[in-house]
Amino acid sequence: MVRTKPTFLSFCFLVVAGCGGKAPTPPADAPVTPAVPIATTPEIDAKLAAADKKDGKEDKVVHKCAGCALHMDGDAKFALKVGGYDMHFCKDACLVRYQKDALGELGKLKVD
Ligand SMILES: [Zn+2]
Fold first, then answer.
1. What angle do CA 41, 89, 78 make, to 5 degrees?
2. What is the spatial distance between Cα 104 and Cα 43, in angstroms, rounded to a whole number?
3. Among 34, 35, 68, 90, which is most buried by a count of CB atoms within 10 Å?
């Protein structure tokens, strides 16, 4: 009975160490844009579609900066993929706001 305990513990340690070792460590200069697009709801999709039209063409690119209520032109340098859309922002601060909470920010965005 006493002998099984260390074996069990080392087994646990190996499992934990194995999993921990597999976790990818992104390099410090990795792009901040997540590789996986942010999942949207139908309401957010409708808003993105309306925002897409604001730049004059429906191309799945929201070129107007949503961080500035679509009043500024965005830049492909500050892009974020949300659902099926590429959102362009005018500056890093606007992009960061949407990176933190794209769905919350889009929920507050007024597209008229
Ligand atoms: Zn902006």
1. 105
2. 12
3. 90
Instruction: List CB-based neighbours of ion ligand 1 within 5 Å.
Output: 65, 67-68, 72, 90, 94
Q: Which residue has the tokens 């069990």?
A: 8
Which pLDDT tens digit goes with each residue over 59-85?
999 999 999 999 999 999 999 999 999
List the chain domain ranges.
37-108
Q: What separation in Å is there between the alpha carbon of 15 and the centre of ligand 1?
A: 46
How many A from CA of 71 to the centre of ligand 1? 8
Terminal-residue alpha carbon distance, the chain: 72
Instruction: Compute the distance between CA of residue 13 and CA of residue 20 in angstroms, rounded to an integer.
Output: 10
- Provide φ and ψ at 60, rounded to 5°: 65, 20
The rounded distance, in Å, linking the Cα atoms of 33 and 38 is 10
